[in-house]
Amino acid sequence: MSGLTDLTLAEARDAVAAKKVSSSELTEAFLKAMEAARSLNAFITETPERAFEMAAASDKRIAAGNARPLEGLPLAIKDLYCTKGVRTTAGSKILHNYVPQYESTVSQNLWDNGAVMLGKANLDEFAMGSSNETSYFGPCISPWRAKGSDAKLVPGGSSGGSACAVSANLCLGATATDTGGSIRTPAAVTGTTGIKPTYGRCSRWGIVAFASSLDQAGPISHTVRDCAIMLKAMASVDPKDSTSVDLPVPDYEAGLEAGVKGLRIGIPKEYRVEGTSPEIDAIWNKGADWLKAQGAEIVEVSLPHTKYALPTYYIVAPAEASSNLARYDGVRYGHRAEGIEDLIDLYQKSRAEGFGSEVRRRILIGTYVLSAGYYDAYYLRAQKLRSLIARDFTEAFKQCDMLLTPATPGPAFAIGEKISDPVTMYLYDVFTVTVNLAGLPSLVLPAGLTESGLPLGLQFIGKAFDEATLLRAGRALEVAAQFTAKPQPWWRAP
Amino acid sequence: MSVDKDTVRRIARLARLKLEEDRVEPMVQELNGILAWVEQLKEVDVEGVPPMTSVVKQRLKMREDVVTEPDNADALMANAPGGEDHFFVVPKVVE
Amino acid sequence: MSTEAKNKLIQGSTGPWEVVVGLEVHCQVLSKAKLFSGASTVFGADPNSQVSFVDAAMPGMLPVINRYCVEQAVRTGLGLKAKINLFSVFDRKNYFYPDLPAGYQISQYKNPIVGEGEVLIDLPGGEVARVGIERLHLEQDAGKSLHDQHPDHSFVDLNRSGIALMEIVTKPDLRSSEEAAAFLKKLRAIVRYLGTCDGNMDEGSMRADVNVSVRKPGAPLNTRCEIKNMNSVRFIVQAIEFEARRQVDVLESGGTIHQQTLLFDAKNGETRPMRSKEEAHDYRYFPDPDLLPLELEQAWVDGIASSLPELPDEKKNHFMEMGLSSYDALVLVAEKEAADYFEAMLKEGAEPKAAANWLNNEYFGRLNKVGLAIGDGPVSAAANSAIVQMISANVISGKTAKDVLDIVWSEGGDPRSLVESRGLKQVTDTGAIEEAVDKVIAANPDKVAAAKAKPSLVGWFVGQVMKATGGKANPVSVNAIVKERLGIPEEG
Ligand SMILES: [Mg+2]
Ligand SMILES: [Zn+2]
Questions:
Q1: How many folded domains does chain C comprise?
Q2: Considering chain B, what percentage of its residues have pLDDT values greater than 90?
Q3: Mean pLDDT confidence for A76-85
Q4: Record: contact B41-A311, CB cut-off 8 A
Q5: Mean pLDDT, to the nearest integer, of A235-257?
Q6: Which CATH code for domain A1-494?
Q7: Rounded to 5°, angle at Cα A479 from A473 and A482
Q8: Is ipTM > 0.90 here?
Q9: Residue C476: count of CB within 10 angstroms of its CB
Q10: How far apart are the CA of A343 and the centre of ligand 1, in A?
Q11: Do C153 and B92 touch (CB under 8 A)?
């Protein structure tokens, strides 16, 4: 039945609707694929029982003619989304035993649309990382390998498990979250497609917070169309999230094939940064040419504060995180240290044992930049820079409808290669992080392979709440790029 | 700006993260590496620039004054380490 | 410096000292649901039974603000004659404590919803002092830790966690424990008139942090100490007095005052440093990224302003315009229930001055004696109004009125029909009174002679006539007739 797991979400949807395959059959195929791919460590928790239950319920609905938009379609859920009755860890020891008694709005939206949950996907601890190496449950391994090498590569992060599961055909699509590039970086390096919607488009309620003003949920999937389908189901106006925006969610799939004719696409000159591989530059130029060939107008634009985005991000995000993660104190849930002397000891030991080194480092940085005497120099200044960065985009969008940029400075790297130096690792988010600071939507899709056979992605950045145009342009690029490469299934036991 | 060992100890205490003494110096190095890198923000003249308060242009949402939550004590305590009779339990605090 | 102010000075060995007090009062907002969640605020529920996942800071939970709590804060601000800020911001105040689930309290730091205002307080001797309000901000209440239930554990109940508080901060304008007490009573009255807080200090819905320092009169402000979390006016008075004396003693023996956080030990009547606050705090305030700034419309604020009830100061003026003395008016407005009761009596037809006299001299006294609150008293405003009206219309005498009150108090019933059925009506029929007077005169020829020489003996005749008529004769008529019969001229 391996053919079933090769389907895109849209193809599976149509096959299920046409009763060519049942949800239970699909679900079984994916559960088997997951089992065979355990060496990739894409999932922290597999939920086969729940999956079969949901699939059976879907098959009943299909039989009764009550199918919903995602009826019976098996998905992976990033383990940052709280799922009622199913352990939710955020990739951290401090939540290794946490079972939420509530369901996140976005995952609930998916279930209400008929989707089936396969399991909880691996991620960097509290979504802090670009390589999925900081997970307490061990790194997720990319299904991709460079030509002639069996070195284990990272799937990107923090939604590494989600990207890996899509790339290795372990699910039809996966939920992800993006605080500084956590949807787009893994999508780019695994040959998958991901969209970070405008801040406020998807509810944050029930998703473990990393940096509240930057976090945004979105899908990783096989194609632009699949992203459009999933985003429509995930997004909603949520009265439980004060920052969820009161705008109707359009039918993103409807206008997908409208092409890019007449669209003005900006190339921000500041994104030609040192240290970017020449192959990235080449694919970027190629992307622009493809769009031009389809009738888009290419214009050079300037985003003068681009180089300050990363350091700004590495003040704002840890500051918010240091506060967001204060609730993990061993009192009401989660890991509690043994053999404690007093309350302070309970806090200090539970937290030191429960958080990994990257999370601890960010909590300390965040605590420092907010502390008395440093707030103005760091946090306040960073928030002012955010205003300047957002203003850059506003100016640029006077000259164009969207931007085209690289997604990452290079292809996937080997596990262990960058983990020792935080700043080097942080630089991996150089192209993605600006968007979070400005709250804008951004789509990443595969555009080609490196010489060594690894996927490279391109990124579109759109105006706020203009995901529809973004997806439409993405579809045009997808058609032109004809990216069909898939990783060889080396992970399957012979 | 850079941090020293005392600052790192003080921050760790504020953040309630136990930092073993042999980890203090390495942490000083790591934090200073990051702080040196963010130092470049000083180049930008931010005089008169308003700090970002929210990336979305929207009014603060409000709820009506209605009780919507049932007695949830069992669900609330479901994950509690050392919970007792619907109380969370911590080592004795002396005020 | 007025004599009143001079009396408040503390005498030390180096001369007089002035006490400087500022208050931070936390008033729980009267609302059904919490500030950022839909959990109930009802007092006294089972432990952790009124806690939403938001209040317990479960992962991924987000705050959404209660519009009514915002409205109550604005209403209170208007009642404090304060500036309403149309733009305010919610910040996170970060610290670790078991009754603070998120590790931060959502509060307002740089941009509070209400700015400067003022409260007038009434001091003994009729003096009125103005107390500046620095600000009012909205914030979440913390849960409760119980420390006495177990030898090595504290138990945490989060029912209170997340209830809306208005923190009202005064300027350091108070100069004695009495002024602090007067301010708290006045503030309590104001929020109760407004209906924004029940002012119930026993249940902790009103609590104060008290900042105390001392200085030589006219000298600049000295270092202050903060006495935390007091919910009794009596203890606040004791604590200020103890603390001021302690500081004077420290300073006079050559020591210095260190800014510190204190607890008041009611058992020993002392303040002592708070162990859990010994560590220097660094709250790392920053705007809560889960919430947008709070922006209000002036028209909305104006709407609240136009629906504001009459507050104690205005009501006092209003009552004085009706002819009440300043003292009577003050007593009546001090408690909202008293003013309401009084106004209900007027609505039933009583004349203001008579009603005020009757309440302050008769009814409230009886309530006090048995420790009943106005709302719990056995006699309705309508009944008291009827009694007062019968006195004014000479239907019953003042003495009979007290008897009628006694009867209604213990047996209930309508005062008018009672007076009717028990024959308590005052005799105003001149013929009947003349008859009674003549009888007394005829029976006491010796007294008649004496009275003619010494007119003050008229009173004795009046007394006899009253006795003979069972107290029902109108004493004014009796007096006039006695004088007429004895040939004693009316004076004046
Ligand atoms: Mg305070
Ligand atoms: Zn407060």
A1: 3
A2: 80
A3: 98
A4: yes
A5: 96
A6: 3.90.1300.10
A7: 135
A8: yes
A9: 12
A10: 23
A11: yes
